[in-house]
Amino acid sequence: MDMRQLKYFVQIVESGSLSKASRQLFIAQPALSQQMTRLEDEVGKPLLVRSSRGVRPTENGEALYHHACFILRQLDQAVSVARREHSNVSGRVNLGMAPTTVCALGLPLIKHLNAKFPGIVLNVVEALSGHLEHMTRLGELDLAILFSTTAALDLTVELLAEEELFVILPRDSQMISPHRNDITLHELAKLPLILPSPGHGLRRRITLEFDRVNLTVDAVAEIDSLPLLMHCVADGIGATIKPMAAVYALQNAPEQWRCLRISDAEMVRRNYLYALGPEKLSQAAAIVRDELKHVVRTLIGSNAWQGVRSMSPLDTPAPVRVEFDDLPMQSVET
After folding, report:
1. How large is the greatest C-alpha to C-alpha distance in the chain, in angstroms?
2. 268, 296, 320 — which closes off a domain?
3. Residue 304 to residue 218: CA distance in whole angstroms
4. What is the CATH number of the domain that holds 263?
5. What is the mean pLDDT of residues 73-81?
6. Is the N or the C terminus of the chain less surrounded, counting Cβ atoms within 10 Å?
């Protein structure tokens, strides 16, 4: 087995067709088919199921595909390091973040890395936490910010920050008196709520608190798209329960929103930083991991990332209960 065979195999799986893969690889289809036959002979197991509709990986082929993707990514990084003409670190790093995390951390992190480590290419994968957990377990991400300590047991994990969840609604909404700064669960249960679907980790966290006081969560809409959810809230359809970073999902005008504390429940979400093990983590990914923690500390320490407190012993806790009246117009930046 050689790297060329792995590259061919990955392209076939991603193309779903030998003919499409041959065009992508600029290789005659019979020669490509012959290479796959040799690969299957070496492995000793069928790797592809061929049919009139194309090809798909077998269970063994699926396992090889994910490992091959990791190996080829590491090879690309090794070649990039070998070719560099200066001492700056270079390489591609895949980082997974949930949409609300991207709202607060995405732009500041990319600007920071571009200024300090221009040779590092950061690929930010934005997805719901369940999908990110799946990608993390398959080794498709170098780093990920997740909300569970059991998302990927074979990776290193450390507590990064803790976000408070707020009831978010437009500044001019009449659902709640403008003089109120907080709300109880019983009051919240009477509001029209726009929430993520029941399979979403944040929704499960919310439901747990409602169950604790024998209340039912009745959502007027269930939306897993953060921009669409916040558009619906802005349009007055209902209120939502989110980390404060959600107010940056639509535009750079956080003062247009109200964020109310839930006074009779400690509703928080912990952020955990996952990373590949030391034997698999590239130098570039290790730098991004450390710089990410630095950017998080900076954002929280300067009160630019609202409603969050750092969990690092090097940090001083930042206030998590704030109003947007005093926030600047610009987006969160380092």
Report:
1. 74
2. 268
3. 33
4. 3.40.190.10
5. 70
6. N
Using the structure block, give the residue that is written with the tokens 């989110």: 242
- Using the structure block, give the residue that is written with the tokens 């709520």: 193
Cα angle vertex 225, ends 220, 227, to 5°?
A: 95
For the chain, give the percent of residues with pLDDT over 70.
Answer: 89
8-state DSSP, 317: P
Alpha helices, H only, the chain: 3-15, 18-25, 29-43, 59-83, 99-101, 107-116, 129-137, 185-189, 201-212, 226-234, 283-301
Helix, strand, or coil (residue 177) = coil
Residue 249 inside a domain? The answer is yes
Are 6 and 63 a contacting pair, CB within 8 Å? no
Tokens of 244: 């404060």
- CA dihedral sign, ordered 188, 191, 196, 200: positive
- Whole-model pTM? 0.67
**29: domain CATH number?**
1.10.10.10
Is residue 321 assigned to a domain? no
Q: Is 274 found in the same domain as 130?
A: yes
What's the CA gap between 291 and 122, in Å, rounded?
A: 12
CA dist., res. 281 & res. 129, Å (int): 21
Q: How many domains does the chain have?
A: 3
Predicted confidence (pLDDT) at residue 124 exceeds the cutoff of 60: yes
120 and 197 co-located in one domain: no
Q: Which amino acid is at 219?
A: A
CB contact at 8 A, 175 and 129: no
- Residue span of the structural domain in which 298 resides: 91-160+269-305
* CB neighbour list of residue 323: distance below 8 Å, 6 or more residues apart: 181, 258, 259
Phi first, then psi, for residue 280 (nearest 5°) are -110, -20
